[in-house]
Amino acid sequence: MRIVMASVLALLVPTGAHAHVSVSPHESRLGATEKYVVRAPTEGKVATTSVELDVPDGVTVETMAVPMGWKYEVKRQGDRIVGIVWQMEIRPGEYAEFGFVARNPKDKKQLVWKLRQRFADGTSTDWTVGPEGNPRPTALTRLTP
Hints:
Layout: H1 2-17, E1 22-24, E2 27-29, E3 33-41, E4 48-54, E5 60-64, E6 71-77, E7 80-90, E8 95-103, E9 110-112, E10 114-119, E11 124-126, E12 140-144
Parallel strand pairs: 2-12
Antiparallel strand pairs: 1-3, 3-8, 4-7, 4-10, 5-8, 6-7, 9-12, 10-11
């Protein structure tokens, strides 16, 4: 029985470790200034060309990381950054991380990050909502007091 359970667990671990575009950390504090990281792997056979992030209401982006080799564009409403588009070729089997510092709102229980990945063949994937219609855990940050 233990061998069967170990075999089942071994089959499930790679599936659980299968990465999608995600935002970390998955937990932060209300009103805190936090470094957020968007991780974008290219899992298929077509290179990623851009990653888009919609900034949740109440979040104030303060600074952006600017690593060599990629560009970004911000979308604004007035002075507030409401979206970020990172552009870079991420080849199959590789990933990139994009960082920014933001201040969390003081009046929300969680942040839902809207994440889209665009590919060289013109297709795109939305990584925000899962098959059940709920936000994916990789697109959520829980806020605690």
